[in-house]
Design brief:
- This protein has 233 residues and is mostly helical.
- It has helices spanning 40-45, 58-63, 75-86, 109-123, 140-155, 166-176, 184-192, 194-204, 206-210, 212-231, and strands at residues 9-11, 14-22, 28-30, 54-56, 90-91, 96-99.
- Helix 6 runs parallel beside helix 8.
Length: 233
C-alpha cells in the first residue's frame, strides 16, 4: 500500500484451523473444505471476508454507511462485508492462519447437525434416495428396489411427501421406473403435486406427459370413491 497511493484495501486469505480437532501429532486440524481461487466475488459469495485478513486505509472506514453503535454483536463481520462490497481489494497469494473457536454447547453445532440429518432423512424418503450425483452409479435393479421401498412406505403411511422433497422423489421414480405413472408414489404426486409430477415426465416423454391429465382425473375420482366407501362401512 505504501508503494501504490491508489491502493486502499489489501486482503490475505486465511487458512482456518480448529484447536479442538487434532491430528495424530496433536496439531490443530485445517478446515478440509475446498477453496476456489480467491477473488472479491468468491470472498463475498463464500462469506469468508474476515476483518483480521485485511489491511486498509483509515479513510475507508469513515466512508462506510454503517451505524457502528447499532451493529455491536457483528461489528467486524459488517465492516469486512462492507469493505469488500464497496472497494476492490488486492488479494494476496500468501495466507494467514486463523483459529476457529472451540466447539461448545453455545455453538449449537450438535443441534444444527441433528436437525439437518433428520431433515435429510425425511426428505430423501427415509434415506431411500441417494444424492443426485450418485444416481448414475445405481444399477437399474438397485434403483427399482429403492422405488419399491418408497411405494411400500407410502402405502404404510410412513413416507412424508411435501413441497420441499416432491420434486426429488418425482425425479427419482421417473428415472428408475419405466411405468412411473403406475407407481403408488408417483400416483400420489400426480394427485397432490400435479405440476411437479407432469413437469418431470415432460422432460422424458411428451407423449406420457399428455396422458397425465385424464389419468389424474381418474385417480382423483378413485380416491374420492374410496373415501366415500370408508365413510359408509
Amino acid at each position: 500500500m505504501q508503494s501504490d497511493i491508489n491502493l486502499s484495501l489489501v486482503y490475505a486469505p486465511s487458512d482456518v484451523y480448529y484447536p479442538d480437532a487434532l491430528d495424530c501429532n496433536g496439531n490443530a486440524v485445517k478446515d478440509p473444505s475446498p477453496e476456489p481461487l480467491w477473488t472479491r466475488q468468491t470472498l463475498l459469495g463464500r462469506d469468508r471476508g474476515n476483518l483480521s485478513c485485511m489491511v486498509f486505509r483509515r479513510k475507508l472506514i469513515c466512508a462506510l454507511p454503517l451505524a457502528i453503535e447499532e451493529i455491536v454483536p457483528v461489528t467486524s463481520w459488517a465492516i469486512a462485508r462492507s469493505l469488500l462490497g464497496c472497494t476492490e481489494p488486492l488479494v494476496l497469494p500468501l495466507r494467514n492462519i486463523e483459529f476457529a473457536p472451540e466447539i461448545a454447547l453455545a455453538n449449537n453445532i450438535m443441534d444444527a447437525l441433528i436437525r439437518r440429518l433428520v431433515t435429510w432423512y425425511l426428505d430423501t424418503g427415509l434415506g431411500s434416495i441417494p444424492t443426485s450425483w450418485a444416481w448414475p452409479r445405481l444399477s437399474a435393479t438397485q434403483g427399482l428396489q429403492r422405488v419399491r421401498e418408497l411405494d411400500a412406505r407410502l402405502l404404510e403411511n410412513k413416507l412424508c411427501i411435501h413441497p420441499g422433497n416432491a420434486s426429488v422423489i418425482a425425479e427419482f421414480v421417473a428415472c428408475f421406473s419405466r411405468m412411473a405413472l403406475f407407481r403408488p408414489v408417483f400416483k400420489y404426486l400426480l394427485v397432490h403435486y400435479p405440476d411437479t409430477a407432469i413437469g418431470v415426465l415432460r422432460k422424458r416423454s411428451t407423449l406420457v406427459a399428455s396422458l397425465c391429465g385424464p389419468w389424474r382425473l381418474l385417480l382423483r375420482g378413485y380416491t374420492k370413491f374410496r373415501k366415500a366407501i370408508r365413510l359408509y362401512t
